[in-house]
Structure formats: C-alpha cells, structure tokens
Amino acid sequence: MQYKDAIAEKTLECDNNQSSKTASDRPLLSWEEIFIYNNPAKQNLGKMTSQEELDNITRLAAYICQSAIALIYLTDGTQQWFASEGSLEGLQISTDSACYAYAVLHKDLLIIEDTWQDTKLSTTPLATFSHSVRFYVGIPLINCKGDSLGCLCVMDVKPRQFTNLQKEGLQILANHVTNQLESHHRTSQVLRESETSFQLLVQSVKDYAIFMLDRNGYVITWNEGAEKIKGYKPEEIIGQHFSRFYPQEDILRGKPNRVLKMAATEGGFEDEAWRVRKDGSRFWANVVITPLRDESGKLKGFAKVTRDITERKRAEEQLIHNAFHDALTGLPNRALFIERLAHQVRQAKRHPGYLFAVLFLDIDRFKTINESLGHAVGDSVLKAIAQRLETIFKSTDAIARFGGDAFTILLEDIASISEATHFAHQINQELAFPFYIQDKEIFINVSIGIALNFNTLTQPDDLLRDAEIAMFRAKTEGRARYQVFDASMHDRAVRRLQLENDLRRAISGDELKLFYQPILSLTTGNIAGFEALLRWQHPQKGWVYPGEFIPLAEETGLILPMDLWVLRESCRQLKQWQIQYPNHRHLTINVNLSGQQFSQPNLLEKIDLILAETGLDAQYLKLEITEAFLINKPEAASATLKLLKKRQIKLAIDDFGTGYCGLNYLHRFPLDTLKIDRSFVSKLGVEREVSIIVEAIVSLAHNLGMEVVAEGIETREQQAQLQAMQCECGQGYLFSKPVDREAAQLLIASSSL
Predict the structure, then answer these.
(1) pLDDT digits (tens, 9 = 90+) for 584-595
(2) Residue 246 pLDDT
(3) Closest Cα partner for 169 from 44, 71, 20, 27?
(4) Any idea of the CA torsion for 726, 728, 733, 736, to the nearest 10 degrees?
C-alpha cells in the first residue's frame, strides 16, 4: 500500500467517524506504521541526504493535513519547505510567521483553524499572520535537552478543521524531524571535531610531508613535515605546482601530470623515486597520492603524503653491496662473479664464435705469510694484491675475490687464447714486485689457471672448475706460472677424485698392506732391521705403489690415519718377531713419519700409547723424518726430536742430499742415523764427483756421531765402495726387495746372528 492511499483512507475515516471516535479507539494502521512502511524516504534513509529526508516529511505533513503547504523552519536561520502543487495561489509565506515565534517562545502546539476569527495570539506581538493565511498548525521541534530546533507548520488559504488523527500523524512527523536534525547535528559535530583533530594531527606530523593539491596539481595546504622534508615555507609553496618537487628529467618526461592521471583513474598512486628539495638536493621519497572527490564523485583534488626514505635506501643499497662484494678488498665476491660469468655464457650461446676466458689465481704459499707474519699482515697483502690487479684491468668488475687467497678474473670478448695468456703473464710480472707491508718487504707469486669457452654448452661452474684444475697443474709444475686448461687435465682430475674415494675406503677396510725391506750390516751381512713400507692392494687395479697415493694422502690429510696405522702395525709385527725369534731381539723397525704427522701436537702421546699397546721397547723403534721437513721447521723439529730421544726412540734423517740441507742445520738435530738417498748410490762408480760427495756424507755423519745407511744398493761394486767408505748398513735389491710378512719371517729364520 502506498502512503498516499493509506493517508487518504485514514482521512476519510476521520471525517466520517469524528463524532463517535473515543480516545481508546485505534486505527487499523497507525501514523507511525504508515510513515515507516510507506515512506520511500524512510525505507531508503541510509541512502538519502538530510535535505531529501526533510523534503519528504514536509510533503507527507501537507498530505496528512490536506493543506496547501507544509514548512520546516530551523532556528539557525535556514529553511526547508514543500508546497502542494496547484494550491499556492494567493498564499504569502514569511519567515516571521506566528508559528515560528510561538513555538520558540512557548514550545507548545499551535492550532488555528481560522486566523481571521481566532484571537488567541492577539496578546503576542510577534504572532502575526499574512492576510492570505487562513489555516495554521505549528508543532515545535524540541530536542532531548529541551532546546528548540525549529518548528513544523502547515498552512492553507482557507479555514479548515484539524482532527486528532491528523494531530497524531503530524506529531509523529515532528518527532522524526527532530531525530533527523539531532542526528545531523551530532554527525556534523563529530565531523567538525574529526576534521579539527585531523588538521591538528597533520600539522603536528614532522616526519611526513602531508599536503593537498587542487585538481590541476597546485598546492593548497602545507604541513610542518612538508616544510621540514622539502624545505619550503607555506607562503613559498602554496599556489605553486607540485611538479617542482620532481627531478628535471622526470619533468621532461611528463611524469608529474602522468601520476595525477593514474591516481585519478586507478584510485591512488604509490611510488619510490628521487625527489628534489628547495635547495636542489635530491632525496629518496616514498610518495602516496590519493584522489579526493565530492558526494557526486567529481574530482576535487588530491592528498599527497611523502616520506624521506633516503637512509633506508642507503641501508638497502649497502646490504646489496655487501651481499655481492668482498668486505676486505671491496672487490666483487664469488656470487657476483658467477652471475656475471653466467651472463657471458648466455652471450656466447647467442653469438657463436664469441670468446671469453676465466683466470683463476691462487697465491703460492700464502699460508706461510699468515703463520709467520700474522693474519693482519696477510689481510693487508690481499688488499694490496687487489689494488695491483685493478691497475692492470680497466674495469674492477672483471676481478673478484673468490675466497681465501684466490682471485678470479673474467676477460670478456677476447680475440684469441693468446690474449688471455698475455694477461696472465702480465699479472705474474706485476705481482713479482715486492709488497711493503708494515715496514716488511714481502715477495709473492701466484699460480694461474686459464679456461676458455670453446664449448658453447659450457656452464659457469664448469669453467670455474676447469680454471681451478689448470691452476693446480701450474702449482704442481713449479708455481709462479700459468697453465691453460685442456681436457686431459679434467680426465686426470676425475681419476684423482676416484683414487681419493678409493683410498678412503682402503683405510677403513683391509686393502692396506705392510711390506718389509731388510737393512743389512755391510760389515757382517746380518739383518740389522727392517724398513716398513706401505702398499695398497686395490680390489680392481691390483697393487698401487706409494708414489701414486702418498702425495694424494698428504694433500687430503689421509696421511695422518695412514701413518698411525703403519706405526701400530709395524710395532706389533716387530714385537711378534722378537717373541718368535728371541735370538733376534736386537732387530729394529724403521717407520717413515710424514711432516704432517710430525707436526701434530699430540704425536708423543700417540706414540706412547702405541708402544704401550704393542709392548715394544722404544729403543727398537726408529722413526725416519724427511730432510725437507727438518729444513722448513728447524726449531719445532729440534724440540720434538729431543723429546723423542728422551724416550730412547731412534731417529733417522731420510733421503739425505735431496733437500739440500744446510750443514749448519744438521748438527742441531739429535739424530742417530743418516740415510743416503738412492739417487747418489746409483751413481757410485759412474760419476767420480758423486763418489766424493757420498764419501763426504759418510765422514760428516761419523763426525756427528751418526751411523750411515745407504739406500738402493743394487750391485756388488756399490756395496764394495760403501764398505770401503765405512758405511755401516745398506738396503736395496742386491739384498732383498720389500717382501710381505711371511717372506720377512723366512729371512729372519735363515739369518745368522
């Protein structure tokens, strides 16, 4: 049911039954129900403005009272009204009407059915009516505090009767008007307070530049944060276009106007970019632009918030730099080098014939610098090397510290392999000049491996691997040189890796065997002892000799467990023979001790433990140490040898003459035996000078209180010459090859005392 139909029905009912209606009678529908269920404005109140709501109420009031016009007067001087169509002729409306004055003064309902006849307002000076107004009803609009907000009035050009039902309906409408006005007032007050608080907040914020632009981008407000960040005072910037905050290159590209269009069409815009202060300096800014629209959706302007993020950007850039650069030298690090190398690989795949090279540099004996001069000096050397490399290459991006004492260099778009070798040669020349660190003159050399992208399918890791393999080859061939990678190097590296894996399994299994070569007295011909020699019985390859796997064991550190195994097994075996052949208790066992094992801090404890486990008397154990180790670390070697000597363990210097040991060193070591290397013995009787050297060695050893053992005796002539030189003992194929345990037992059993 539409509200006009419902009201018409109510009005007709009122006219026909007015005389019989009592106070307790209620209509089928109340005015409240008619207003709520049939008023489109009430049904859509959430979607309507205050003006639309009041217009609908005045329309409904005029209809209820069947009057020409209904008005709402407000005490704040504004007015909202509605007049029924076709009923305004001759009606004069004035804001000084009696309804308004009476409602304000008396706060009571005023009903005048005929203004020409009614005299109730004759005592009220303000209550005057226009001559055209004959019917008048006014209801004051009183809020919950008792204040008058205005009044709702109904007027007509002819006298009318006003029924109780109409009074009830008009009162309901008046209540709704009051509620609407109070709600609007509260909302307006909250908005005003919110706007005031927001303005105070915006003005007090100093870390954010918050300001408003009109729809064309001109500044219309400016807060204290904007002045702090951008440098402009309000009077300097208000009215100016916001494009002055952008760098010149952005202005030329039209970025300021473009971002406003984006903000308007997309509902906002956010950006992190350079901005310009008043003094022309630049800063990194986070900018948020929000479009402002009126109730109809029309663009009014923009709100712009800017934050200075320069420090954050610097921190981010520093983090990125740290992630891809070496902290010590400042050069690109491994990660950045691999990334650039990958780019070169992609370039080569796109362009057949494109050639580039990777150089892998490793400092020779850098560990010695750290150990002798300290890590601080070592770090200074690395920085000095980086600086010297930078003088050779145009771009520091081509150089990287790969880790430790290794550097890598990327040579892009080279013509041939000779260009790469030219740079390698130049590097060696430049680094050969001394470095002066903390008043010390330091000389260094580097070994360089070179790998080129001859294979278009090559990956970055493959090139780095190949360059490193070539570098290791340069080291094995004498250091201070360069080597260009070839496929055979990779094959050898693969075989070496396989050999290392096999050797690890051999140590944990039962593939390692001990052979024993007898050492004979050249005077009596009797066996004085044995030298324990390690052999490896590979399950597929058969016997592998020490020359193949000992260097690998030393490089990988596997020599340490191997040495202990040999020492324990040798002592156990000799003790067993001494028990089995008591007449040969004088036999000794010679065990080779690697330089790495000799440098272990717990070496003496391990030897003591092995002797205790096997029950061998220490005087029958003879440890052989290489000449090269004694030369490299004479002080440490001398201290350890003296402690071993206190335990009655015999000490021998092995391969004498091959390490060019200075004679001034030899007397410092408490040695029992000097072993002449086979390279000298093999030339006895062939080269006169060698015979003179061997004779001098024997004489020197005797003068220092040492016995002499000659290795590698293969002929009777060699034996005779050594006997003539009074060399005490010898070993070699002339007497016996190294034999296994069972064969060694037979030699012992057949040997005379």
Answers:
(1) 889 999 999 988
(2) 95
(3) 27
(4) 140
